[in-house]
Amino acid sequence: MESGLGEEASNESASLSGLSAVDQLGEDFERSLSLDAALSETDKATLRTFALKTDEHLTRRTLEKLPFAFPGAHVPSANHLRTRVAFLSGIKPVLYDCCPNSCCCYTGPHAALDNCPYCKAPRRDSRGKARSQFSYIPLIPRLQAFQANTEMATAMKHRAHGHTHKADSTISDVYDSTAYRSKLRQRVRVHDKELRHCHFSDPRDVALGLATDGFGPFRRRNKT
Ligand SMILES: [Zn+2]
Asked: Which among 108, 142, 176, 197 counts the fewest CB atoms within 10 Å?
């Protein structure tokens, strides 16, 4: 057993020997270095191009024509743009197969199905590839990105500093709702353990709302 572990360790160090110190620490560490040290001019140009592409819905074809329209300008290729922005943002989307008719996502109880349980459309094409996919950006990296942006982080404190509840039961914000207000007096529970602080007692706490199409979970919301 011991010799097996020793072999693994030595194989690992052999495979790392050709890598730089930063490579060995990994992608996350490199990203934090490049962000802490302020973005390079090249990265700034890449991000400006990305913002232009997404704000103006530029097609890949238009993007590829930009260097001809503006000779000498730094215009990254579409591929470089995608990979570099994905790297800098640190956000990795999770892809889920879904029905091409948008009936369902193949997750949870539907994860192993080969056909849509609603319209019976096949999940995959003749080559075994998903016919449609949903690109889900996990919640935690989104919240981290919001907090990393001064403007957004300030806006997110609206719950604690920007809204005052009026005692006359007027609803002017989601924070006037009975559900939210009752949480303010409730201690946080994690599994079976009751903690000493109440919900939303820290101004940075985030209240997450769920909105779905098709039904109204609260009586006060008569529109779905
Ligand atoms: Zn379907």
From this structure: 108
